[in-house]
Amino acid sequence: MMWEETGMIASLNTIQSGQPTEATLLDERMKALGLDTGAWLRFQPAMIAELRDACSHCRDAVRCELDLATHAEDPDWHDWKDYCANAAKLNMLVALQFY
Fold it and tell me: How many domains does the chain have?
C-alpha cells in the first residue's frame, strides 16, 4: 500500500474510534507541512509540548483529522488555519526551516 492509502486508513480508523490524539494530529499536521517532528522535538521539546497541549484542548480534533485524511497532500489547502490554535506557531516553524 502507498503511504497516502495507509495514512488515510489510519486517519479514518481514528475518526471511527472517536479518539484522535493530540500527538497523532500534531505529527500528521507537521508532516503535511514538511516539518520533521522528531527533529523539532529534539531541538525544542518545550515548544512541541506546548503545541501538543493546545491540540489536547482542541474542540476541532475530528475536523482536523478529516482535513488531514482528505487534504494533507494538497499544499493549497489552508482552511485548517481558520480553526487551529497552533496555526501561527506551525507557520513560524515552516518559515524557520528555510533559514
Answer: 1
